[in-house]
Amino acid sequence: MKIMTRRYLSTFGCYTLLILASFISLFPVFWTLSTSIKQRADTFVLPPRLFQFEPTWKNYAAIFQTRGFGQVFLNTITITLGSTILCVAVSTLAAYALARAPRFSGRASFEVGLILIRAIPAIVVMVPLFQISSKLGIYDNHYALIVMYAAVNIPFSTWLMTSFVEQVPIALEQSAAVDGAGRVATFWYVVLPLLMPGIAANTIFVALLGWNEFLIPVMLAGNSAKTLPVFIAGFISARNLDWGPMAAASSLAILPIAVITVFAQRALVSGLSSGAIKA
Fold first, then answer.
1. Average pLDDT of the chain?
2. Could you give the CA distance from residue 140 to residue 145 in angstroms, rounded to a whole number?
3. Topology at the third CATH level for domain 68-276
């Protein structure tokens, strides 16, 4: 009886902690969504009204009509999609080469260096990159941002994919070679299908990093290639803070990634459980 009681108490405690953690995690999202449909006066009421207010869609209309939100949203999708495809393609090939290369002295240090490169504060290289992009005439250019996003994320993405490639039995490649398949055919028809869970998980991670990137576009983009993080930050000024439109833009910025994550969660969980994250 005591064992059953302890088990129920343990289960109850676990569910209580999970509910509390979920509430803490989701409350900012709820606050953003509710603020996006509030009148301007309602956003400054103290204490805040969580449900007792008259909803309005004026904030959403304002960001499309006066702020050019549609073009910014399209810019963000284009840059994120392009950089994600480029990053995942290059990192998958690099991870395959790294995993199948003969062991060499300093390989462990090289793999650690991939993470250290990603850990370098981006602001350190932003000023030189700004000067280079200005002199080359690629400032405020979509293609330049795509390449820059991909370059920043390739080291982390390569490190992430290497463990996946190492889990593919090399005997399968040897069998394909015995059957007459070349290196490219072996990779395309044998290795790549087995890497799909890892590629799915890697794609989601890289897309999240690209979608939320702020420093690169704020330094290397103007009005033509402005992205959502920079657009949302533009509602904050020294004299004014438009809570309603900013919350509306934030709500719409959350939507694509949330939808993708929901539909791709099976592939994401499969990828992580297969060893996408090194212990």
1. 82
2. 8
3. MetI-like fold (1.10.3720)
